[in-house]
Amino acid sequence: MLCCIYIPFTLQPTVKCSAASISPLHSSLQGNALLQLYPLYTPAYSEMLCCRYIPFTLQPTVKCSAKNPFSSKPWDTCSVVGNGGILSNSTCGEMIDSAQFVIRCNLPPVESSHLKDVGKKTGLVTANPSILNQNGLLDRRRPFVDSMSHYKDALILLPAFTLSKNIQPSLRVVYTIEESLSPIRPVFLNPEYIRNLHSFWSSKGLNKRLSSGFMVASLALELCTNVHLYGFWPFDQHPLLQQPLNNHYYDNIQSKKKVHAMPDEFDHLLRLHEQGVLKIHLGECV
């Protein structure tokens, strides 16, 4: 599911990635089609090479590290933290950080001013393409490195294999992290995993590009026995307090609605909540 990083690389003729086995994780969630159809996690981590990508192929010149960051997992409890404005004044920070593993989306702020509502513990954080393109890393890289210090030695999930145009920005992040000796650890998703993930949800009616929050919520179901979602509310009014909400807990910049289908994604998450597969938190945490 997660690839270690292999650099440097060369462009080679197409070769197939090594096969990945169906995950034995979450046997307690028998009957959950989501987990039966798309998991690609494999104990043979060192053989799971992310080598194929259309329109060209990346053939690693060195083998992936055999070290699996999830070798002793799944975790019992995981918090997946979206960036919805519903987190403002939620006082959910302590509950979020009490989970064994915390996943955050798109390099969100976790400074002290937000600590009470969103916490600061981070095991994995995503960086979406727009953030990478905005930073560029073509000029001064120190501000980007400094901003990463809030996540300490977390895994940073880069979108290298979602679209071909994301490869170079993702690699610039990798090089910047290496050169700065930052403790944060870059990882990529296996393109076969991405393809299966999109195929599964497309069969359920989600035909637009999956948001990073929805992807890591799906990912968490493979890594965690109990998945708790926070900040997943894609509407501009609070469901309980009936008051207006900002788009994010840290700003009110609107998302590109033509790219993702956030309300439709939330509808699927709500169904999983109703089935007891995961838990969505929408009110204040006490």
From TrEMBL:
<comment type="similarity">
    <text>Belongs to the glycosyltransferase 29 family.</text>
</comment>
<feature type="disulfide bond">
    <location>
        <begin position="78"/>
        <end position="224"/>
    </location>
</feature>
<keyword id="KW-0812">Transmembrane</keyword>
<keyword id="KW-0333">Golgi apparatus</keyword>
<dbReference type="InterPro" id="IPR050943">
    <property type="entry name" value="Glycosyltr_29_Sialyltrsf"/>
</dbReference>
<dbReference type="GO" id="GO:0003828">
    <property type="term" value="F:alpha-N-acetylneuraminate alpha-2,8-sialyltransferase activity"/>
</dbReference>
<keyword id="KW-1133">Transmembrane helix</keyword>
<keyword id="KW-0808">Transferase</keyword>
<dbReference type="Pfam" id="PF00777">
    <property type="entry name" value="Glyco_transf_29"/>
</dbReference>
<dbReference type="GO" id="GO:0006491">
    <property type="term" value="P:N-glycan processing"/>
</dbReference>
<keyword id="KW-0325">Glycoprotein</keyword>
<keyword id="KW-0328">Glycosyltransferase</keyword>
<dbReference type="GO" id="GO:0000139">
    <property type="term" value="C:Golgi membrane"/>
</dbReference>
<keyword id="KW-0735">Signal-anchor</keyword>
<dbReference type="GO" id="GO:0009311">
    <property type="term" value="P:oligosaccharide metabolic process"/>
</dbReference>
<protein>
    <recommendedName>
        <fullName>ST8 alpha-N-acetyl-neuraminide alpha-2,8-sialyltransferase 6</fullName>
    </recommendedName>
</protein>
<keyword id="KW-0472">Membrane</keyword>
<dbReference type="InterPro" id="IPR038578">
    <property type="entry name" value="GT29-like_sf"/>
</dbReference>
<dbReference type="InterPro" id="IPR001675">
    <property type="entry name" value="Glyco_trans_29"/>
</dbReference>
